[in-house]
Amino acid sequence: DADVTQTPRNRITKTGKRIMLECSQTKGHDRMYWYRQDPGLGLRLIYYSFDVKDINKGEISDGYSVSRQAQAKFSLSLESAIPNQTALYFCATSEPGQGAWTGELFFGEGSRLTVL
Amino acid sequence: DQQVKQNSPSLSVQEGRISILNCDYTNSMFDYFLWYKKYPAEGPTFLISISSIKDKNEDGRFTVFLNKSAKHLSLHIVPSQPGDSAVYFCAASARDYGQNFVFGPGTRLSVLP
After folding, report:
1. Which residues of B touch A109 (CB under 8 A)?
2. CA distance, residue A87 to nearest chain B CA (Å)
């Protein structure tokens, strides 16, 4: 089983609908992230959480919200989906770095969202 | 404006030859750099990293070189294998980013048999 699991893997929805993408992890990491990937833009950070009571906006948080239900669960919500939110979404986890090491990210397999 | 750039969207290399993937960054505060590999329908996986206190890090067939004065790093794969065909992302981190990573747009490597 994957250490970082995302559901659903694929979703097609209509403009204005509310969508939730869920992420759960078995790595025991405190830090969790949501990224979106668009062609030619790489991975951009939406939200991140360094522990259950810590939620921070990333580079492109507008139109999104998150919930950290437990150490192992981090959900991303689109309250009213719009077509330019069509993208591949990745959840990731990490541990705090030691010294110069900032800690690698461990990614889920991705959730492809299409907003019509 | 992108802080991490990978100016080659794609690269094709013959099996057995060297693959060189390049990455440029603009923020001089970046002090840690990673390369990730991504296959279709999978999440990115960590490949190799380098701290700004080094100029080279090697792991098997993969070597990353860092030129801080030029704000440039490169990933060398020698010898290239068909299984190396994937999208490669360069990522950079700075302590004043809360240790978050900024990713480049990726380079698609195709290794031809």
Report:
1. 41-43
2. 13
What pLDDT, in 10s, does the model give residues B39-87?
998 999 999 999 999 999 999 999 999 999 999 999 999 999 999 999 9
Spatial distance between the Cα atoms of B21 and B6, rounded to a whole number of angstroms:
8
Q: What is the pLDDT of residues A33-52, one digit of tens each?
A: 999 999 888 899 999 998 89
Bridge partners (DSSP) of residue B12 are B110
Minimal Cβ distance to B43: which of A58, A101, A110: A110
Spatial distance between the Cα atoms of A30 and A70, rounded to a whole number of angstroms: 10
Contacts of A44 in chain B (CB under 8 A): 103
**Pairing mode, strands B4-5 and B19-25:** antiparallel
